[in-house]
Hints:
By secondary structure, the protein is of the alpha/beta class. It contains 10 helices and 7 strands. It is globular and about 50 Å long. The structure holds S-adenosylmethionine (SAM).
Amino acid sequence: MSTFxxxxxxxxxxxYMQEAAAGTLRDVLLEAGATxxxxxxxxxxxxxxxxxxxxxxxxxxxxxxxxxRTGARDHDPNIDTILDDLELSHRVTPLxxxxxxxxxxxxxxxxxxxxxxxxCYFDGGHTWDLTGFGVVLVDMLLRPGxxxxxxxxxxxxxxxxxYTARPSITQKYDDDEVEAFPVRLVWDxxxxxxxxxxxxxxxxxxxxxxxxxx
Length: 214
Ligand SMILES: C[S@@+](CC[C@H](N)C(=O)[O-])C[C@H]1O[C@@H](n2cnc3c(N)ncnc32)[C@H](O)[C@@H]1O
Protein backbone atom coordinates (compact mmCIF):
# COMPACT_ATOMS: atom_id res chain seq x y z
CA MET A 1 0.00 0.00 0.00
CA SER A 2 1.33 3.44 -0.88
CA THR A 3 1.75 6.04 1.84
CA PHE A 4 -0.98 8.04 0.10
CA UNK A 5 -3.38 5.09 0.44
CA UNK A 6 -2.37 4.66 4.06
CA UNK A 7 -3.50 8.24 4.82
CA UNK A 8 -6.98 7.33 3.58
CA UNK A 9 -7.00 3.96 5.33
CA UNK A 10 -5.92 5.39 8.69
CA UNK A 11 -7.51 8.86 8.64
CA UNK A 12 -10.16 8.86 5.92
CA UNK A 13 -12.82 9.90 8.47
CA UNK A 14 -10.89 12.93 9.73
CA UNK A 15 -12.46 16.20 8.48
CA TYR A 16 -11.42 18.13 5.44
CA MET A 17 -9.36 17.12 2.45
CA GLN A 18 -11.02 14.15 0.75
CA GLU A 19 -9.10 11.46 -1.12
CA ALA A 20 -10.45 12.57 -4.53
CA ALA A 21 -9.15 16.11 -3.95
CA ALA A 22 -5.85 14.71 -2.69
CA GLY A 23 -5.58 12.70 -5.91
CA THR A 24 -5.96 15.88 -7.95
CA LEU A 25 -3.39 17.57 -5.74
CA ARG A 26 -1.01 14.66 -6.36
CA ASP A 27 -1.38 15.15 -10.13
CA VAL A 28 -0.63 18.88 -9.77
CA LEU A 29 2.43 18.35 -7.54
CA LEU A 30 3.92 15.54 -9.61
CA GLU A 31 3.42 17.35 -12.91
CA ALA A 32 5.02 20.50 -11.49
CA GLY A 33 7.84 18.57 -9.82
CA ALA A 34 7.17 20.70 -6.75
CA THR A 35 9.57 20.11 -3.88
CA UNK A 36 9.21 22.96 -1.40
CA UNK A 37 5.57 23.20 -0.34
CA UNK A 38 3.73 25.76 1.77
CA UNK A 39 0.27 25.33 3.25
CA UNK A 40 -1.94 27.95 4.86
CA UNK A 41 -4.38 26.28 7.24
CA UNK A 42 -3.77 22.68 8.36
CA UNK A 43 -6.62 22.14 10.89
CA UNK A 44 -6.05 18.50 11.94
CA UNK A 45 -3.32 18.00 9.39
CA UNK A 46 -5.15 15.78 6.89
CA UNK A 47 -4.23 17.76 3.77
CA UNK A 48 -0.71 18.10 5.20
CA UNK A 49 -0.53 14.32 5.58
CA UNK A 50 -1.62 13.79 1.98
CA UNK A 51 1.01 16.26 0.73
CA UNK A 52 3.71 14.61 2.85
CA UNK A 53 2.61 11.20 1.57
CA UNK A 54 2.81 12.40 -2.04
CA UNK A 55 6.38 13.56 -1.40
CA UNK A 56 7.25 10.30 0.39
CA UNK A 57 5.82 8.11 -2.37
CA UNK A 58 7.67 10.13 -5.03
CA UNK A 59 10.95 9.79 -3.10
CA UNK A 60 13.87 12.16 -3.02
CA UNK A 61 13.79 15.60 -1.47
CA UNK A 62 10.61 17.43 -0.64
CA UNK A 63 9.08 19.04 2.41
CA UNK A 64 6.05 20.98 3.56
CA UNK A 65 5.88 23.99 5.86
CA UNK A 66 2.34 24.48 7.10
CA UNK A 67 0.75 27.19 9.25
CA UNK A 68 -2.32 27.37 11.49
CA ARG A 69 -3.27 28.85 14.85
CA THR A 70 -2.02 27.57 18.22
CA GLY A 71 -5.45 26.03 18.93
CA ALA A 72 -5.09 23.62 16.01
CA ARG A 73 -2.88 21.49 18.25
CA ASP A 74 -5.92 20.90 20.53
CA HIS A 75 -7.68 18.72 17.94
CA ASP A 76 -7.78 14.97 18.44
CA PRO A 77 -6.08 13.64 16.43
CA ASN A 78 -3.91 16.64 15.67
CA ILE A 79 -1.28 17.20 13.02
CA ASP A 80 1.51 15.84 15.23
CA THR A 81 -0.23 12.58 16.11
CA ILE A 82 -1.34 12.01 12.50
CA LEU A 83 2.13 12.60 11.08
CA ASP A 84 3.76 10.48 13.80
CA ASP A 85 1.36 7.63 13.10
CA LEU A 86 2.15 7.78 9.38
CA GLU A 87 5.90 8.18 10.00
CA LEU A 88 5.81 11.39 7.94
CA SER A 89 6.96 13.92 10.54
CA HIS A 90 10.32 14.29 8.80
CA ARG A 91 8.51 15.77 5.76
CA VAL A 92 6.53 18.49 7.57
CA THR A 93 7.25 21.56 9.68
CA PRO A 94 4.04 22.76 11.36
CA LEU A 95 4.10 26.41 12.49
CA UNK A 96 1.49 27.66 14.93
CA UNK A 97 0.58 31.34 15.02
CA UNK A 98 -0.62 33.00 18.19
CA UNK A 99 -2.92 35.30 16.17
CA UNK A 100 -2.63 34.80 12.42
CA UNK A 101 -0.55 33.23 9.68
CA UNK A 102 -0.03 36.72 8.31
CA UNK A 103 2.50 37.39 11.07
CA UNK A 104 4.17 34.00 10.65
CA UNK A 105 4.59 34.80 6.95
CA UNK A 106 6.08 38.17 7.89
CA UNK A 107 8.71 36.30 9.93
CA UNK A 108 9.54 34.08 6.96
CA UNK A 109 9.74 37.06 4.58
CA UNK A 110 12.04 38.92 6.96
CA UNK A 111 14.56 36.07 6.91
CA UNK A 112 16.54 36.22 3.65
CA UNK A 113 17.93 32.75 4.39
CA UNK A 114 14.52 31.33 5.26
CA UNK A 115 12.55 28.89 3.13
CA UNK A 116 11.12 29.80 -0.26
CA UNK A 117 8.51 27.71 -2.03
CA UNK A 118 7.40 26.43 -5.42
CA UNK A 119 3.85 25.55 -4.38
CA CYS A 120 1.28 26.86 -1.89
CA TYR A 121 -2.05 25.32 -0.90
CA PHE A 122 -4.07 28.23 0.51
CA ASP A 123 -6.86 26.99 2.79
CA GLY A 124 -7.08 29.25 5.81
CA GLY A 125 -9.32 32.23 6.45
CA HIS A 126 -11.49 33.17 3.50
CA THR A 127 -12.48 36.77 4.19
CA TRP A 128 -11.43 39.54 1.80
CA ASP A 129 -8.83 40.99 4.17
CA LEU A 130 -7.18 37.68 5.06
CA THR A 131 -7.20 36.24 1.56
CA GLY A 132 -6.18 39.42 -0.21
CA PHE A 133 -3.31 40.22 2.14
CA GLY A 134 -2.46 36.53 2.52
CA VAL A 135 -1.83 35.97 -1.18
CA VAL A 136 0.38 39.07 -1.36
CA LEU A 137 2.51 37.66 1.47
CA VAL A 138 2.56 34.20 -0.11
CA ASP A 139 3.61 35.79 -3.40
CA MET A 140 6.68 37.20 -1.63
CA LEU A 141 7.67 33.65 -0.64
CA LEU A 142 6.91 31.88 -3.92
CA ARG A 143 9.63 31.34 -6.49
CA PRO A 144 9.09 32.66 -10.02
CA GLY A 145 6.78 30.24 -11.83
CA UNK A 146 5.50 28.88 -8.51
CA UNK A 147 1.96 27.55 -8.19
CA UNK A 148 -0.77 28.80 -5.87
CA UNK A 149 -3.82 26.60 -5.26
CA UNK A 150 -6.76 28.45 -3.70
CA UNK A 151 -9.43 26.51 -1.83
CA UNK A 152 -13.04 27.61 -1.30
CA UNK A 153 -13.53 29.68 -4.43
CA UNK A 154 -17.28 29.69 -3.71
CA UNK A 155 -17.13 30.59 -0.01
CA UNK A 156 -19.20 33.57 1.16
CA UNK A 157 -20.02 34.95 4.59
CA UNK A 158 -23.65 34.45 3.57
CA UNK A 159 -23.19 30.69 3.11
CA UNK A 160 -20.80 30.12 6.03
CA UNK A 161 -22.28 28.14 8.95
CA UNK A 162 -19.82 29.92 11.27
CA TYR A 163 -21.05 33.41 10.33
CA THR A 164 -24.70 32.36 10.04
CA ALA A 165 -24.54 31.21 13.66
CA ARG A 166 -22.98 34.53 14.72
CA PRO A 167 -25.20 37.40 13.48
CA SER A 168 -23.41 39.91 15.73
CA ILE A 169 -20.22 39.35 13.72
CA THR A 170 -21.97 39.24 10.35
CA GLN A 171 -23.68 42.58 11.06
CA LYS A 172 -20.27 44.27 11.01
CA TYR A 173 -20.06 43.64 7.25
CA ASP A 174 -21.90 45.54 4.50
CA ASP A 175 -24.56 43.51 2.75
CA ASP A 176 -22.58 43.31 -0.48
CA GLU A 177 -19.55 41.99 1.40
CA VAL A 178 -21.72 39.35 3.08
CA GLU A 179 -22.91 38.22 -0.35
CA ALA A 180 -19.47 38.42 -2.01
CA PHE A 181 -17.16 35.47 -2.79
CA PRO A 182 -13.86 36.84 -1.46
CA VAL A 183 -11.54 34.06 -2.65
CA ARG A 184 -12.98 34.38 -6.16
CA LEU A 185 -12.64 38.16 -5.94
CA VAL A 186 -8.96 37.76 -5.10
CA TRP A 187 -8.60 35.32 -8.01
CA ASP A 188 -10.27 37.84 -10.35
CA UNK A 189 -8.59 41.03 -9.15
CA UNK A 190 -5.55 40.79 -6.85
CA UNK A 191 -3.82 37.84 -8.54
CA UNK A 192 -4.10 39.21 -12.11
CA UNK A 193 -2.80 42.50 -10.70
CA UNK A 194 0.26 40.55 -9.50
CA UNK A 195 0.62 39.03 -12.98
CA UNK A 196 -0.57 35.54 -12.09
CA UNK A 197 -1.79 33.25 -14.86
CA UNK A 198 -5.07 31.49 -14.12
CA UNK A 199 -4.08 27.89 -14.94
CA UNK A 200 -7.48 26.31 -14.31
CA UNK A 201 -10.34 25.85 -11.90
CA UNK A 202 -11.39 22.55 -10.33
CA UNK A 203 -15.10 23.18 -9.65
CA UNK A 204 -15.53 19.73 -8.09
CA UNK A 205 -13.08 20.73 -5.35
CA UNK A 206 -13.87 24.50 -5.32
CA UNK A 207 -10.24 25.14 -6.27
CA UNK A 208 -8.46 27.64 -8.46
CA UNK A 209 -4.87 26.99 -9.59
CA UNK A 210 -2.73 29.91 -10.73
CA UNK A 211 0.93 30.49 -11.54
CA UNK A 212 3.30 33.27 -10.55
CA UNK A 213 5.10 34.89 -13.51
CA UNK A 214 8.37 33.15 -14.31
C1 LIG B 1 -10.57 24.43 6.36
S1 LIG B 1 -9.42 24.40 7.64
C2 LIG B 1 -7.99 23.67 6.85
C3 LIG B 1 -8.22 22.25 6.42
C4 LIG B 1 -6.98 21.50 5.92
N1 LIG B 1 -6.27 22.24 4.91
C5 LIG B 1 -7.39 20.16 5.34
O1 LIG B 1 -7.85 20.12 4.20
O2 LIG B 1 -7.28 19.14 6.04
C6 LIG B 1 -8.92 26.09 7.77
C7 LIG B 1 -7.88 26.33 8.84
O3 LIG B 1 -7.41 27.67 8.67
C8 LIG B 1 -7.06 28.14 9.96
N2 LIG B 1 -7.04 29.61 9.95
C9 LIG B 1 -8.05 30.46 9.61
N3 LIG B 1 -7.64 31.73 9.74
C10 LIG B 1 -6.35 31.70 10.17
C11 LIG B 1 -5.39 32.68 10.51
N4 LIG B 1 -5.66 33.98 10.38
N5 LIG B 1 -4.16 32.28 10.91
C12 LIG B 1 -3.87 30.95 11.02
N6 LIG B 1 -4.74 29.97 10.71
C13 LIG B 1 -5.97 30.33 10.30
C14 LIG B 1 -8.13 27.59 10.88
O4 LIG B 1 -7.65 27.53 12.21
C15 LIG B 1 -8.41 26.21 10.27
O5 LIG B 1 -7.71 25.20 10.96
